[in-house]
Amino acid sequence: MGEGKKHERSLSSDLLKHPSTKRAKEVDTTENPFRRLEERIEAHTSSAKVKPRNVLHWFRSKDLRAEDNRALNAASQKARETGSVLLTCFLYSPKDLQWHGTSPARSDFMFECIRLVQEQLGCLNIPLVILTAEARDKKGEQLMDFIKKHDVSHVYANYEYEVDELRRDLDLLDRIEPDGNVYFELHHDQTVVVPGTLLTGSGGPHKVFTPYHKSWLSTVSEDPSLLDTVGLPEANDKAARQQVQELFDYQKKTFPSLPKDKLFPSDEDRKRIRGLWPAGHTAGMSRLREFLHKKCDTYAKNRSIPAEDNSSRMSPYFAAGVVSIRQVLSTSSKECNEGSVDFSSSGADAGLAAWIREIVFREFYRHMMVVIPHNGMNLPQNLKFDFVEWEDDEEGWRKWTEGTTGVPFVDAGMRQLTSEAYMHNRLRMNVSSYLRTNLLLDYRRGERWFAENLVDWDLCNNTQGWEPSYTVFNPISQAEKCDPHGDFIRKYVPELKDVKGKAIFDPLNRLDKEEFKKLGYPEPHVDLKESKERCLQRHKHDMADADP
Ligand SMILES: Cc1cc2nc3c(=O)[nH]c(=O)nc-3n(C[C@H](O)[C@H](O)[C@H](O)COP(=O)(O)OP(=O)(O)OC[C@H]3O[C@@H](n4cnc5c(N)ncnc54)[C@H](O)[C@@H]3O)c2cc1C
């Protein structure tokens, strides 16, 4: 960085493309696709005006279940009321997986869940057809072809809150509205409280977590019906099945395969990851009960101690919508809170209250996605961070991805990611801080690496988890606090398994030279103190007068 030279805005590769900060502001204000879609849906033709023919539920990658699926249930009711046949589809776009960088683990999990829902619906005589749109901009066209070919009059789906997905739904409205003979209905299904609706005293949406959390708790306490669940769709009768037999034949023949770069590198990897993350609603619910009855009690105390593995590991089931959040909360209320929906620290045990707080974080991130839509456009929420000049340290990048930075806690986290397609939250906080501040690499590279490797990748949580801030973690003191006996480090960094005592947190400086050499563990890639100073200076220099 030239002395005194002001950096305009960060450069980034094609994969990390993002619009200008000015354009982001337009999307947040005048264009706001969520608001536009809500208005269009509100003004859309009434269902009663459309002559009922076949009814379609359109699954998305975030509602892959038949149980307590709001839009699917509404579609089923419509089909029953009008004596129509219920059809379902999933619109698959391989380019979407490539665009988002979705990992093989997440892609495989998604396909397995779809397969299971397909079987389950098949027993109810309801077909689930997978439509493939080769290009991302062909999705609307592909769906319209299906709608026309199969004489669909009513389409139901659950909202997705990211910019591209909102635009896709607006595109579908553009296609169906001119003829006026197809009705499109969207449901809020991903959260208990509808994103964008919790407001501050002055009437604007909450933008800070703590008051949002408080408001969320009182909203749910005052209206327990928010946790009501809906049942499975009603079966089509046998005659209906015969009517749509060609769709069953088609679905049997044409389950698509994943693109090559979304396949596991080996069968062994696939087996291991599938074993850790069994697909489907039943597996998700039994994991939930296991957590509620065996781990939840100690969650408040141990949630930041990764060696305890005390969290629920429900994230892949939430990210793909395999288990509904209402069902999770109503089960928690019935089985662990004597039927009460007061999940505050005075209304629930400490463990449950702390766990629900994390679920509320998930809700908050969906809320913030509609309040500040540019969150979903590869841009930081605080746009000033787009003016930071990042380093070009390819060796540091490689070491970070491999877990060979020479910082044991960071390396343990990165190796957990490689072996489990998952990383404990405390490690996610540390490895992201290390990449963005100590290595001073564009945080978007790390964000994408997570997408490419996590089984629970979720755009709202990942993007906002990676949101840059002024905080610089110290991964040595973090390890001393959160992994006090070094057990987590020993588990994932075998070179250090025999290191005794506190030397495990900083082996280069706490062992004598010879001892360190014998370990075969790398020296730190950067000095933590110096690199922190460099980062703070860089922030100061590049952001002080930035005008996003
Ligand atoms: C840099 C970074 C990236 C992240 N990327 C993702 C991601 O791609 N997908 C993802 O689901 N989570 C992400 N998180 C949040 C969190 O780390 C994971 O949700 C959590 O580790 C999953 O483990 P669990 O299911 O055992 O969580 P538990 O502790 O059991 O929590 C229950 C649920 O609450 C939600 N939750 C927990 N912590 C958070 C949090 N900090 N923010 C938002 N929701 C939370 C998750 O849905 C989680 O499954 C990220 C966090 C950071 C710091």
UniProtKB/TrEMBL annotation:
GO terms for biological process: circadian regulation of gene expression; entrainment of circadian clock by photoperiod. The keyword Flavoprotein applies. One of its GO terms (molecular function) is deoxyribodipyrimidine photo-lyase activity. GO terms for cellular component: cytoplasm; nucleus. Residues 1-31 are annotated as: Disordered. Its cofactor is FAD. FAD binds at residues 299, 311-315, 355, 358-365, 456-458. Keywords: FAD, Flavoprotein. Binds 1 FAD per subunit. This is Photolyase/cryptochrome alpha/beta domain-containing protein. The keyword Hydrolase does not apply. SUPFAM superfamilies: Cryptochrome/photolyase FAD-binding domain, Cryptochrome/photolyase, N-terminal domain. It comes from the Eukaryota. Belongs to the DNA photolyase class-1 family. Residues 54-192 form the Photolyase/cryptochrome alpha/beta domain.
